[in-house]
Design a protein that fits this description.
With 218 residues, the chain is of the alpha/beta class. It has 8 helices and 10 strands.
Length: 218
């Protein structure tokens, strides 16, 4: 089970999470977020886990293509995650600029089905560029993610087009206590958490990180 711990804010935490067996570390470049980091801190994190088998995921929310290019020029990211209102056309252009970087497109879901995801994927097909992964998170009117709200597992289970859409990464309110149940219900490719393993926003708890990873990989 692919496991991502998002909102890593310092090199020490990065080393700890990598050593516990996480598949990926999420680096948040969205300034309004309490988990956001500077490029300088991201470079420190990159250096801290250079010898670890862990991927670095850059999280962006409505950044310009030029802003992403600047950050990618300063740090070697392994994946790009778009968590805002980025259009399929934006996705296609980003894919042209970074053909070597897999793209994760996040959706905040609250409806009774995944019609908005289906419509987006249809537009991606028209534009000639599909995301490499889809991340389904819980909807919040006040934040783009990291709220601790649980995503609608039943809706995802019933409506995710697993044979046609990219691999699913499940997010939204996942904790050590519920991640095994979530995986059993939804059968995703991977899981992603931030607040579910924290003592306070941006501060990871070692015991909770370890429990989350162990429960997910069971």
């Amino acid at each position: 089970m692919w496991t991502k711990i998002c909102g890593i804010r310092d090199a020490e935490t990065a080393r700890m999470v990598a050593a516990l067996g996480a598949s990926a570390l999420g680096l948040n470049f969205y300034t309004p977020s309490p988990r956001s980091i500077s490029v300088e801190t991201a470079r420190e994190i990159e250096a801290a886990v250079a010898d670890k088998d862990v991927s670095l995921v850059g999280l962006f929310v409505n950044h310009s293509l030029e802003e992403i290019e600047t950050i990618c020029g300063a740090i070697s990211l392994d994946l790009l995650q778009l968590h805002g209102d980025e259009s399929p056309e934006y996705l296609a252009e980003l894919g042209l600029r970074f053909p070597e970087l897999p793209l994760i497109r996040a959706f905040r879901v609250r409806e009774s089905d995944l019609a908005s995801v289906a419509a987006y994927m249809n537009e991606c097909n028209r534009c000639g560029k599909r995301p490499d992964f889809l991340l389904i998170d819980a909807y919040s009117p006040t934040a783009f993610g990291g709220t601790g709200k649980v995503a609608p597992w039943t809706v995802i289970q019933e409506h995710y087009q697993i044979d046609d859409w990219p691999p699913l990464i499940l997010a939204g309110g996942l904790t050590p206590e519920n991640v095994a149940e979530a995986i059993s219900a939804v059968q995703p490719f991977g899981v992603d958490t931030a607040s579910g393993v924290e003592e306070q926003p941006g501060v990871k708890n070692r015991a909770r990180v370890e429990a989350f990873i162990n429960q997910a990989k069971k």
